[in-house]
Amino acid sequence: MHNMNWDDLRILLAVSNTGSQSAAADHLGINQTTISRRLRQLEQNYGQPLLQRQRKGYVFTDEANLLIEQARKMEAHMLEIARAQANDRRSELKGQVVVSSTDMVLRYMIAPVLSEFRQRYPGIELVLLSNDEVVSLSHMEADIALRYIRSEQLDIVQRKLITFQYSYFASPDYLDKYPVDESVPLQGHRILKFEHIKYRYNSQQLQDFDNNEIIMRSNHADLLIDACRQGLGIISLQQQYGMQISGLRMLNIPPHRNVSVWIASHKDNRRLPAIHAVKEFIIEASERCARGEFAVEDKQRDLIATGWAEYKVE
């Protein structure tokens, strides 16, 4: 491999992995002319042909296949070194990071990855505050906040994480007593309503419950869920979260509202290593959540199409 470098071998490996020079160019973000030129340069340095031209394209020579195998080993070794270096940097991260959010977001989006977080960042003490209040990041009440509203403060750095769909749920006892006509909007039913004066979507939610009797209001989700389990009324819950609560059934009605979650931190803290690491981890978790990795099992999800579905956490 005299006078050969990794960049040239990376080109050859990309062509092998993607199946063509054009696909390799797209994968590497360079043009196909550069791919062809680098392959010719690699052949010159190697002293033997690596590609055999045929009517339908190219095939690799035996010498090229040997180089590709060596390149794969080099790539694996380099990735191993990179991972080790990343783990060393992560293990050096220390300190306490306070994250404030609602109980639903913490349970559904953060709880499933706590073990992974501990393995990745053993030196960070993660403090999770379940709080329906909008904490003040400027007054250091938390380092990171996951909110349902976008902050208007200029000193807050924020981005949208995920948008949740909300559906209606009720207990089997309630549905036996008060059947739901799924062909029309909810009318004449008893509603358990989550309410918080600082959440802007409340005014919209009130419209959802026109022509229904609101029998209980609370800013405590667990209290309303317990009341729903007892058959007191219908509750609106984030869809996938509600599907995992035993004793509740999801109404076969299209989701009635979308609510976005924003991640926010103070601008002075955005480059602090531990806080930055936690933010990136939460963003990664939200992307996995959006892909459905934290959703209920397929056999449970299939029950939705039959009309009613009861979900239980074993």
Automatic annotation (TrEMBL):
<keyword id="KW-0805">Transcription regulation</keyword>
<dbReference type="InterPro" id="IPR005119">
    <property type="entry name" value="LysR_subst-bd"/>
</dbReference>
<dbReference type="InterPro" id="IPR058163">
    <property type="entry name" value="LysR-type_TF_proteobact-type"/>
</dbReference>
<dbReference type="InterPro" id="IPR036388">
    <property type="entry name" value="WH-like_DNA-bd_sf"/>
</dbReference>
<dbReference type="Pfam" id="PF03466">
    <property type="entry name" value="LysR_substrate"/>
</dbReference>
<keyword id="KW-0238">DNA-binding</keyword>
<keyword id="KW-0804">Transcription</keyword>
<dbReference type="InterPro" id="IPR036390">
    <property type="entry name" value="WH_DNA-bd_sf"/>
</dbReference>
<dbReference type="InterPro" id="IPR000847">
    <property type="entry name" value="LysR_HTH_N"/>
</dbReference>
<dbReference type="GO" id="GO:0043565">
    <property type="term" value="F:sequence-specific DNA binding"/>
</dbReference>
<protein>
    <submittedName>
        <fullName>LysR family transcriptional regulator</fullName>
    </submittedName>
</protein>
<feature type="domain" description="HTH lysR-type">
    <location>
        <begin position="4"/>
        <end position="61"/>
    </location>
</feature>
<dbReference type="GO" id="GO:0006351">
    <property type="term" value="P:DNA-templated transcription"/>
</dbReference>
<dbReference type="GO" id="GO:0003700">
    <property type="term" value="F:DNA-binding transcription factor activity"/>
</dbReference>
<dbReference type="Pfam" id="PF00126">
    <property type="entry name" value="HTH_1"/>
</dbReference>
<comment type="similarity">
    <text>Belongs to the LysR transcriptional regulatory family.</text>
</comment>
